[in-house]
Amino acid sequence: MAKEIKAKRPLVSLLSTEFIERIVDEAKEVLDKTGVWVQNEEGLEILGNGGARIDREKEKAYIPKRLVEESLKSVPSSITLYDRNGNPHINLEGNNIHFNPGSGGPKVWDSDLNVIREPSTQDHINYTKLVDALDNIDQISAAMIPNDVPKEIGGQYRVFLCLKYSTKSIFGGTFHKDGLQVEKDLLVAIRGSEKAAREKPMLLIGACPSPPLKWSDLTCHDLIMGAQNWIPPVLISMPLTGSTAPITIGGSLVQHTAESLSGVVIGQLASQGSPIIWGGSPAAFDMRFGTTPMGAIETMMIDMAYNEIGKYLGIPTEAYIGISDAKRPDSQAGLETGIGAVLAALAGINLITGAGMLNLETTQSLEKLVIDNEICGMARRLVQGITPRGERLAEDLFTEGLYEGKHFLLSPTTMKWFREEFFYSGPVISREDDQTWMEKGATTAEQRAKEEVKRILATHEPEPLDKDVDIELVKIMTKDAEKYGMSKLPLP
Amino acid sequence: MDLLENIKQSIIDMDRGKVVELTRKALGEGIKPERLLYEALTPGMDIVGEQYEKNIKFIPEMLMSAEALRDAMELLAPILTKSDLSKAGRVVMGTVEGDIHDIGQQIVSMMLEGAGFEVYNLGVDVPADKFVEKAKQEQADVVGMSAFLSTTGLRFPDVIEALQEAGIREQVKVMIGGAAASGKYAETIGADGYGSNAGAAVRLVKSFMSKQ
Fold it and tell me: Would the CB atoms of A175 and B151 count as touching at under 8 Å?
């Protein structure tokens, strides 16, 4: 009788434990000796009360090691998010991976006009419906910044559209200090009460320190409010090597760790035991073009490494990876996204933010989302590993009257496992013979993706909201828009 | 002349020490500062700029050459006439109010200085009236604004309006840059141009000056 062998979860590691400890120690020293700028009154107060040394004039907080270590003790190592219907949706812990689209870009790839342009409300609605239909993209992000509403409401408006046209949990953001309150009101309307919303969180909020070592008024506000209101903040530290952070990968990792630790401390002081995510969007700054390439291999290495540090500290992780700098869904888009998504999956990053994103993290593409959906499926299958099946692995080789060919195809073992053992690609991936391919129009992946987008948008109907809830959401959002001069939302 | 050629090469070689040493030597030998500026320093920086555009030299190298140029300029400034000093032009640069992203505009500023412009960089989170005040004070030729966020991109028209109200809109050229800017947006708000990257921004400023 064979001993039960479990599938091995393939993992890739870039840092030894010693190296991780060295980075964490140096980061703690930075917080203690150099400190962080905190341009938010509440943040400074919270840190001061927690034991940090505050220089009010310089708006600086010097965080002692003891305070960092205490905060690390109370931060949860797992977060469960729920979908719009209140069902458990995503479990961020261990090496569980989930994919969500890259956000929040001010541009969209228009595959009819073949141009990059600004998106409208309709674009965001199409995007939301599409992501709702894509099985390998777990969560939806407030990905596009619609240009037909006042910019001040852009943050919460995107969340509103995600709530209306999809049931998936949401990764959101804000542009304005009043934004998160509106998002909270929308969530309470969905759940029915603040208590229910607290018990079944479904929204994550980005909280981005400004490199190096600074918390702006808005981002610190969102961090504190998110921590206090069951809207888990995703810390998005973004060192750019050699321009807004030290040039070496190790140096940038220290900055990322320092900034993120300061976020953890603020979050735990704001609400002890509140969940937070160790995320980021660093880049290996390109010294030729002065740009921030998400497709650079070192960008991905920094992501993977800081994710290892987050896991070492026992915190769920996130990263902007599986993104391309290509300007349309072409070969560059495929290769950069493919490499990134697979590496992210092998690193065990809990939330992999990137699907659909192009052009230095500024542009979303529906066609790319469909292609990336395939990449996500493959990556997920990869990390499921190889599971030993059956008493005897090669049962058919022991069968009486064995011969090649048809036997395997008709064997009961084959029938039992052929669907579960393999990830079957969608229509975007061409696997037919070339004659058939010619007859079908000799298409590229980009062309097939465009057809697939059309098909999904024509046939997929997201689960509609309860009529009363729908009315309530529109009411909340319209009231907010009125503050900035818009009396009617540009909804279809 | 050998000495001028050496100074030019030292700029290209990013050798700050040598540039200062040789510039002092040249001044000591009675070589006119205008000759140093136009026959050694600026040509050296032009070559660096070309090599940067061709991806032969990278940003840190280009900035180091610009620092060497700046060191030499410190020696020449007291002796050069004001018109020689900012012969290329005077530019006010800044990131608009509410925005703290500045790496792009810092690179543009340094490249403009390298190209011989007098640059007044106001930093980040700059209110409209500060742009106007500085432009007036220094009789600027160009006002360059940067914004990264879609929210702060809304501040560009504020600055243009403030320039109009102060009565100096006609005296300056307005350039916008950053992720919140675009050629189309520049047209819409009545800016004079859009710099999509550092090299393009410098070329744009040079084109503004050549049309004067």
Answer: yes
| CATH number where B123 lies | 3.40.50.280
B139 and B166 within one domain: yes
Q: Using CB atoms, which residue from B58, B151, B198 is nearest to A151?
A: B151
B190 is in which domain, residue-wise? 86-210
Asked if residue B202 has pLDDT above 60, the reply is yes
What global pTM score does this model have? 0.91
CATH topology of domain A73-384: TIM Barrel (3.20.20)
Chain A touched by B195 (CB under 8 Å): no
Burial of A73 (0-12, 13-18, 19+ CB in 10 A): exposed
| Best to test chain B binding among A288, A325, A362, A484 (most B CBs inside 10 Å) | A288
d(CA B68, CA A430) in angstroms, rounded, equals 56
As for how many domains chain B has, the answer is 2
Provide the ipTM: 0.78
Task: State the pLDDT at residue A484.
Answer: 93
Nearest residue of A to residue B55, measured between CA atoms: A288
CATH number at residue B48: 1.10.1240.10
Q: Which residues of B touch A287 (CB under 8 A)?
A: 58-60
- Among B63, B84, B105, which residue terminates a domain? B84
B77 shares a domain with B126:
no
B190 & B104 share domain: yes
B104 and B161 in a single domain? The answer is yes
**Most confident among A90-104, B26-40, B44-58 (mean pLDDT):** A90-104
